[in-house]
Please model this.
Amino acid sequence: MRLLLTSTTESGADWAVDMTGNKLLEMKNITKRFYSVTALDNVSIELYEGEILALVGENGAGKSTLMKILSGSYPHSSYDGEIYVNGEKQNFNHTYDAEKAGIEMIYQEISLMGDLTVTENILMGRLPQRKVKGLVNWKKAKEMANEALEIIRLNIDPNETVRRLSTSQMQLLSIAKAVYRNPKLLVLDEPTSALTENETQELMRILAALKAKGIGCIYISHKLDEVFTSTDRIVVLRDGKTVNTYSKEAIVPGKIIEDMVGRKVEAMYPKANVSPGKEVLRVENFIVPSKIPGKNVVNNISFSVREGEIVGLGGLVGAGRSELVNAVFGSIPKSSGSIYINGEKAVIEKPIDAIKYKMALLTEDRRVSGYVGTMTIRENISLASFDKISENGLLNRKSEKSQTEDQFNALNVRAPGIETNIMNLSGGNQQKVVLAKWLMNGAKLLFLDEPTRGIDIGAKVEIYSLMADLINNGAAIVLISSELPEFLALCDRFVMMYEGKPRGEFARNEFNESTFVKAATNID
Model:
């Protein structure tokens, strides 16, 4: 059955909820242990029809564990406590049980079948059948898929293979798939981490329409500005316990952040006040070809960065920012352009050339190109420094252990030790390990592409402080960030891009949200 979504607001202007209405969900006294570790300690939450409830906390606070219990990923025999949906006690043994109860999950890690079509993904397990048993009615299936895509205004071919979609299209497809099933309760885990600003606004329209239909939502996000403006209540978890619950009217951002991290955060964006020194990098007339023959993804971009300076590369998704820094670093080919390091022309054709110049690239997706998932923390930190920890072509294990432990401690990586597999770490600690890899090599020129994407508020502040320390010690940073408050607060200069073309350079004192929007959208 098609779910029609309509709303009188663009992004959900009225988020009020009747707390005297029907209680849709109640999770009572949930306790979950993994051997000797208590992941959840007597946690209780409740959700009302037509309410958007935010669940916030640092990585490791217990949010994902609680939602895995709700989704049936952890069977009811594996935890203590009770779950009620519309007043009826539920014992979920499998995700199918939760789905039958009207619970749909949208995960941060996209869980689509890449080699199947858009239609097959949307209707997985529910493909319409012909009268002849076992045959799929593909005409009807395509109509149903188009209805689902229309809900979120996603203009893609239902016959397209999912693997060929962009990350943001995959995320929107996941949302369409969940919403089309007409759930009673929708759980969204970091739903906007891969979305553009316009796509985020479209999601807010959908949530407003779901509210109007009485559907309850649990919203998990590290983007606190979204949480503060788009939810009715906020539940804060820390170390597996419920710390506090706030109504929309009682939101005090500083207090919520303090509840999340367990301490006062004196400065959200610690800014190093350093007078820039000599020019470290100059990029001239860079052109980077697109995968589409005859087109360029970067067209004639030039910029520079000095010691003690953070230069922001700004623009919308698709502006060519990531392609530009990857081409400078030698990860992807360029058509033309020159690079000057400390005033001298440099030849960088591949990453190993960039590493010799003490350059570092923190890539947009750490899972794909930031670390090796099968390796330990020690092995990942030492990846770019074999010349420092080897003698006559042989690895010096003692030196490797000593130097990686120094970085492990300096960046305050939270893990049992350097022999821990990196996949066992939270996103913030994985990002610290990736940074440690470059710092161990003595990097003084860093390209940071979305360095705080998908990590909690405490880890963000630690990374901001690390950036300030690097700048104070004479490093130079080129920053790409889709979080505008972060971008505006941290950068000393801004180089704006639009569809691969230059849109101007701005000093810190002449740049604001309005300037950003005009430059990023090519509006004069």
